[in-house]
Fold this sequence. Notes:
Oligomer: single chain
Number of helices: 6
Helix content: 25-40%
Number of strands: 6
Largest sheet: 6 strands, parallel
Order of helices and strands: EHEHEHEEHHEH
Shape: globular
Amino acid sequence: MTxxxxxxxxxxxxxxxxxxxxxxxxxxxxxxxxNVRILLASMGGRLSAGQLAAAARLLHVxxxxxxxxxxxxxxxxxxxxxAGTWLQWLAREFQxxxxxxxHYAFGSLHWPAPVLVVGHTCVCSWFAAVRRQPVxxxxxxxVQATRAGLRGADVVTAPTATMLAELI
Length: 168
């Protein structure tokens, strides 16, 4: 088998407002040692100066950011749709071999490469564990988007086996 010489191209989503940012940067750092070129698409709000500086230190990472609302934010659906369009444009330009989404809804869109969705949290399991009740009707669109994104993914994983088991 001939060793790969060109970097593997990975498009990955992250956000500026949760622990997903730390997870993403740690993963990007680790992938740098494995000949992976990453287009990192950040959403959820503007990145801080510290976040921008941390990303700039990763020479194999090309950062793009928009302030689109995330799935779990109040009334996010116009932004989620716009973010999906933006991500599809980035994918056409970057031509990734793998798409790594740290957000659910994008897994349900059409992509030119295999899709990995990572589940970091789940509104249904959070309500069950913290509030000891099922989610209310105001969360149903988010639940539907999560389910569709998980079904659309080629692979679903989570940082822990417990989180993976809790996904919708």
